[in-house]
Amino acid sequence: MKPSSIIWTKTDEAPALASASLLPIVRSFLKHAGIDIEEYDISLAGRILANFADFLPDDREMPDYLARLEELVQQPGTNVIKLPNISASVPQLTAAIKELQNKGYPVPDYPEAPQTPEEEKLKQRFSKVLGSAVNPVLREGNADRRAAASVKAFALKNPHKMMKPWPETGSVTQVVHMTEKDFFGSEKSVVQGKACTARIEFHPEAGEAIVLKNRLDLNEDEVLDTSVMNVQALRDFYASQLDVAKGKKALLSLHLKATMMKVSDPIMFGHCVAVFFKDLLDKHPKTLEDLEVNLNNGIADLLEKIERLPEALKNGIIAEIKATFESQPDLAMVDSDKGITNLHRPNNVIIDASMPNIIRDGGKMWNKEGKLQDTIAVIPDRSYATMYQMVIEDCKAHGQFDPATMGNVSNVGLMAKKAEEYGSHDKTFVAPGDGVIKLMDDQNNCIMAQTVETGDIFRMCRTQDEAIRDWVKLGIARARATGAPAVFWLNPERAHDARIIEKVNAYLPLHDTGGLDIHIMTPDEAMQFTLGRVREGKDTISVTGNILRDYLTDLFPILELGTSSRMLSIVPLLKGGGLFETGAGGSAPKHVQQFLEEGHLRWDSLGEYCALVPSLELAAKMDGNAKAALFGRALDHAIGIYLENGKSPSRKVKEIDNRGATFYIALYWAKQLAAQDEDKVVKDIFSPVAKALHENEAAIAEDLLAAQGGKVDIGGYYYPDPAMTDKHMRPSPVFNQIVDRL
Ligand SMILES: NC(=O)C1=CN([C@@H]2O[C@H](COP(=O)(O)OP(=O)(O)OC[C@H]3O[C@@H](n4cnc5c(N)ncnc54)[C@H](OP(=O)(O)O)[C@@H]3O)[C@@H](O)[C@H]2O)C=CC1
Ligand SMILES: O=C(O)CCC(=O)C(=O)O
Ligand SMILES: [Mg+2]
């Protein structure tokens, strides 16, 4: 048996807190399977420190774990457990920098509006930690996301109670989108012939061309897309929807992905804020410009910066802001108690999590009185807006879904090699003037051209042929393994999808598809087909591009299981090895808030427990490590018992939380290892542990509950103090002793 090694990522917020409790247990247990757990810090704070090591004294340097992982996922045999991490918006980035500086790490400030070449360079360096900077780097494989069979079976037997009924009549909730001049409408797509080096240029109506991006090494057979969002059309659209929301007495809500689409979506967000506050901006252009208000960072930026004004002017503007809130439609709220709206910060409402919640909540969002109300859900680009409207129409016609009977929708997502329907940040540009943006090859041939007006958002995306081939193969493998129909969600009316359809049609015949039920449908048709089956209790596999992968793997788990944290998210790496993502959701900032206020962490680590099972199976397979297989099977059984016994964290203080849940996983895992007879050494080690945990169950549960109820200080938000975190996340001395003695 070779020793095995599993890399466990240290991330941010709730999952990082949960790891402080779970990881010592995993380490102690797996030591006896010959498995070493290496912790790699890829948190936002850790990435800032690693990227600016040259600013730090030697003793405060942080290794660049993300760079190491980037190499490792391209090598066979790598085994990674990846927890959700912050994809930072600018406000999150600046807050993390400030915290590090206050802790004595002399990292530089983020130059939002660079004035010198040095600042421009610094901004470039920071772009490596901004937005979705981790996932696209690690995802060197396509995604297989599904609920483990035991988790789905449990959900059907014990349906979650979060679903609210849809009104039988009268709901005015609807998705609204542009009808022209959006990314969908302008998209062009080609399959690249020979490999070449290309560049992106802006050709103004008059004058010299400007190079926006140089040295793009294009590969043979990759799919290249370009598209443009016309910002005047976008602003006109926003203005019209403000009127619609007001007319229908509905909330206005905006659903974007400003974290992952870190260049385009904050700008689209900022235009919405600007249209909302149009009168104010028209009245005070100079004052707001002098304050360097950046509406891409939300209303919060405006509110913070006007604090610097002389009292009289400031109060005048505050009165006008209040009047704007009264005259415009009501906004959906993020936190009605604190007056935080959908437009306060670009990272507060993220489409993959926000749209499913509307559906779960009977077509409603929270208003400023803290009550649920219908909403006009603004999703400007048409590419995926309409499939959400299909769900809304289905619920209006047939009522809320029933988690006790719903069929399961799993996903095979095209994600490998960045699959840049997403992650296209380094090829997203704001048009510097009226003209044409061209993709040129090294022979000076124009591959694609897009006409732009000043301020328009140009996006270019690349999808590699190798990734598409592997994705088709994985889709077929899942169809074969489950017998469920596999539906490719692709729209022939969309340029990018039309190219992908050609490739799917070329690669399907390379596999044995006999007896399989495989379809290619537009996202709207696929949604209708899938929802029909869901209501009949039948399972369906969605085989999708990267964005639908993201959206659907929150949507269906939230409806079926109550949260996407209960998903298995397996990424078989192209080079062999595996990346096991835990859950499909985010890092739950609300959970940290609750933990700090009342000492209760409601984060459900089921995603982490579940991810460890296939990771152990991989270790068993790769290293011939039979003990890894044994520990994996034991954990799988333990998870079943844990679910049956209802030991998941509650949402309420003074009831079981993440730490209690993790104690029960340890107890049941140890009991399974003690009960088996395959490996005598393991049995002898774990029998006394299981006994001790069992005998001390009441005392440990009491310790863990006693730790709740008061305020908690972990010495920071983005870079908490490890010892303080440890103290709060491991508050039972008896439990710690048993685990640490192992
Ligand atoms: N894979 C990754 O690395 C991902 C990272 N992100 C990042 O996460 C942050 C927040 O994103 P956002 O989309 O708002 O998502 P959240 O993390 O806030 O999740 C939305 C809601 O889902 C529920 N939820 C999610 N995970 C769990 C869990 N493990 N246990 C219990 N409930 C859970 C919570 O609902 P409730 O509070 O009602 O209990 C939560 O508020 C952002 O920084 C984003 O960039 C987002 C998606 C994926
Ligand atoms: O990388 C990110 O920012 C988010 C990823 C995500 O939401 C997902 O993969 O489901
Ligand atoms: Mg997602």
Automatic annotation (TrEMBL):
<dbReference type="GO" id="GO:0006099">
    <property type="term" value="P:tricarboxylic acid cycle"/>
</dbReference>
<keyword id="KW-0460">Magnesium</keyword>
<protein>
    <recommendedName>
        <fullName>Isocitrate dehydrogenase [NADP]</fullName>
        <ecNumber>1.1.1.42</ecNumber>
    </recommendedName>
</protein>
<feature type="binding site">
    <location>
        <begin position="82"/>
        <end position="87"/>
    </location>
    <ligand>
        <name>NADP(+)</name>
    </ligand>
</feature>
<feature type="binding site">
    <location>
        <position position="549"/>
    </location>
    <ligand>
        <name>D-threo-isocitrate</name>
    </ligand>
</feature>
<feature type="binding site">
    <location>
        <position position="352"/>
    </location>
    <ligand>
        <name>Mg(2+)</name>
    </ligand>
</feature>
<dbReference type="GO" id="GO:0006097">
    <property type="term" value="P:glyoxylate cycle"/>
</dbReference>
<feature type="binding site">
    <location>
        <position position="145"/>
    </location>
    <ligand>
        <name>D-threo-isocitrate</name>
    </ligand>
</feature>
<dbReference type="GO" id="GO:0046872">
    <property type="term" value="F:metal ion binding"/>
</dbReference>
<keyword id="KW-0521">NADP</keyword>
<dbReference type="GO" id="GO:0004450">
    <property type="term" value="F:isocitrate dehydrogenase (NADP+) activity"/>
</dbReference>
<feature type="site" description="Critical for catalysis">
    <location>
        <position position="257"/>
    </location>
</feature>
<comment type="similarity">
    <text>Belongs to the monomeric-type IDH family.</text>
</comment>
<feature type="binding site">
    <location>
        <position position="135"/>
    </location>
    <ligand>
        <name>NADP(+)</name>
    </ligand>
</feature>
<keyword id="KW-0479">Metal-binding</keyword>
<feature type="binding site">
    <location>
        <position position="591"/>
    </location>
    <ligand>
        <name>NADP(+)</name>
    </ligand>
</feature>
<feature type="binding site">
    <location>
        <position position="550"/>
    </location>
    <ligand>
        <name>Mg(2+)</name>
    </ligand>
</feature>
<keyword id="KW-0329">Glyoxylate bypass</keyword>
<keyword id="KW-0816">Tricarboxylic acid cycle</keyword>
<dbReference type="Pfam" id="PF03971">
    <property type="entry name" value="IDH"/>
</dbReference>
<feature type="binding site">
    <location>
        <position position="554"/>
    </location>
    <ligand>
        <name>Mg(2+)</name>
    </ligand>
</feature>
<dbReference type="InterPro" id="IPR004436">
    <property type="entry name" value="Isocitrate_DH_NADP_mono"/>
</dbReference>
<feature type="binding site">
    <location>
        <begin position="602"/>
        <end position="604"/>
    </location>
    <ligand>
        <name>NADP(+)</name>
    </ligand>
</feature>
<feature type="binding site">
    <location>
        <begin position="132"/>
        <end position="139"/>
    </location>
    <ligand>
        <name>substrate</name>
    </ligand>
</feature>
<keyword id="KW-0560">Oxidoreductase</keyword>
<feature type="binding site">
    <location>
        <position position="651"/>
    </location>
    <ligand>
        <name>NADP(+)</name>
    </ligand>
</feature>
<feature type="binding site">
    <location>
        <begin position="586"/>
        <end position="587"/>
    </location>
    <ligand>
        <name>NADP(+)</name>
    </ligand>
</feature>
<feature type="site" description="Critical for catalysis">
    <location>
        <position position="422"/>
    </location>
</feature>
